[in-house]
Amino acid sequence: MTGADAPLLDVADLRVEFDTYGGTVQAVRGVSFSVAAGKTLAIVGESGCGKSVTVQALMGLVPMPPGRITAGSARLRGHEILGTTMLEGRDFRGNEIGMIFQDPMSALNPTMTIGRQIAETLEVHRGWSRARAFARAVELLDMVRIPEAAARARQYPFEFSGGMLQRAMIAMAIACEPAILIADEPTTALDVTIQAQVLDLMADLQNEKSMAIVLITHDLGVVARMADDVAVMYAGQIVEKGSVDDIFYRPAHPYTVGLRAAMPTNADHADHVLRPIPGSPPDLFSPPAGCAYAARCPHAMNICADHDPPPFLPDESGHFGRCWLHHESVAGGLERLRAGAATERSAHE
Fold first, then answer.
1. Of 30, 208, 253, 333, whose CB is crowded by the most CB atoms within 10 A?
2. Within a 10 A sphere around the Cβ of 143, how many other Cβ atoms?
3. What distance in Å separates the CA atoms of residue 76 and residue 91, rounded to the nearest whole number?
């Protein structure tokens, strides 16, 4: 692809491992995705599936040791960024790619004022003077709708509420007007009103700046609200990828169907019984030879336990699912999967 259609960020076959006392954890196992300017890619999955490790590897935040990147490529505007040192990565980390961390209270320095921490980003990456950078920090706090921004810039993190801390993190992440914003669970531990405000703020900033957003979440409600494309992760792999409509209305993997069925609803006519996915994720010290979801899958076949399925393309849109139900030898496999998904969806809507 070229021009406007070319991805800003293109990740191919990323693999990350961690050495522990119990053995080697294969945390990320061949992840590939891309995101274009002005688009939002949501990476969704349950805790421990490798979502955060994936983006931390891109940002050079995986501690080495015990972690290590064993394979893969990540190209930003065509330039390789994977495996760069902290000094080498300064040109893109924080400058071209900004990141909102999951817990702003632990991500921010408690001994520095909010304004000073935002200003430091501009001093390092843009070479601005302290006074100019601090003035811009106040403007950024006002941009993310923190009242009395000039006074708040001189306060410390403990003086901010959870929602205000998240806004301050967003201000820091966008200070250098990055091309890509990575948001790792940006609404965790926030009440629903503040969640909506934070998501609306991210959407407004994206429209103004044409940023690409990589959104890490386990909340399908957030996915439906924000995403253009969705990558569903399970046990360190992307098991399905497609548009947000594909994921919700034309799922191509049983795990996606299970996530949708476990999503609560407040519809008056809906079936209010939550349907959790039975069982537990596989042990990534020794991942299964076949499909990682086979032990929990209601559609599992003999082949699933022994052979890892490749990405099958049900249609020409690029929507794919790693599931043997799509193999030409399985009569009616996709129809059976989607019939079950339609039944689950009608119970929620």
1. 253
2. 18
3. 11
Read off the amino acid at residue 13: D
| pTM, to two decimals | 0.87
Q: What is the DSSP letter of 69?
A: E
Average pLDDT over residues 163-191: 85
Spatial CA neighbour of 98 closest among 179, 44, 25: 179
> Rounded to an integer, what distance in angstroms lies between the CA atom of residue 101 and that of residue 52?
10
Sheet with strand 237-243: strands edge to edge: 97-100, 180-184, 212-217, 40-44, 229-234, 237-243, 320-321
CA distance 98 to 177: 8
State both tokens at 131.
Answer: 């006074």
326-338: pLDDT as tens digits? 888 776 666 667 6
Cα–chain-centroid distance for residue 329?
A: 34
Q: Parallel, antiparallel, or unpaired: how do β-strands 9-20 and 23-35 relate?
A: antiparallel
Give residue 1's pLDDT.
Answer: 47
Instruction: Compute the C-alpha angle 70/71/73, nearest 5°.
Output: 135
**DSSP track, 295-345:** GG-TT--HHHHHSPPP-B-SSTTS-EE--GGGSTTSTTHHHHHHHHHHHHH
Lowest mean per-residue pLDDT among 42-51, 97-106, 147-156, 284-293: 97-106
Angle at 288 between CA 285 and CA 291, to 5 degrees: 135
Instruction: Name residue, tokens 């995101």.
Output: 35
Question: How high is the pLDDT of residue 325?
Answer: 87
Return the domain boundaries, the chain.
3-227, 250-348
SS3 content of the chain, % helix, strand, coil (to 5): 40, 20, 40
Domain 3-227, second-level architecture: 3-Layer(aba) Sandwich (3.40)
Q: Which helix (H) or strand (E) holds 34?
A: strand 23-35
The pLDDT of residue 85 is above 70? no
Which tokens hold the place of 58? 């891109």
What tokens appear for 100 in the block?
Answer: 């909102």
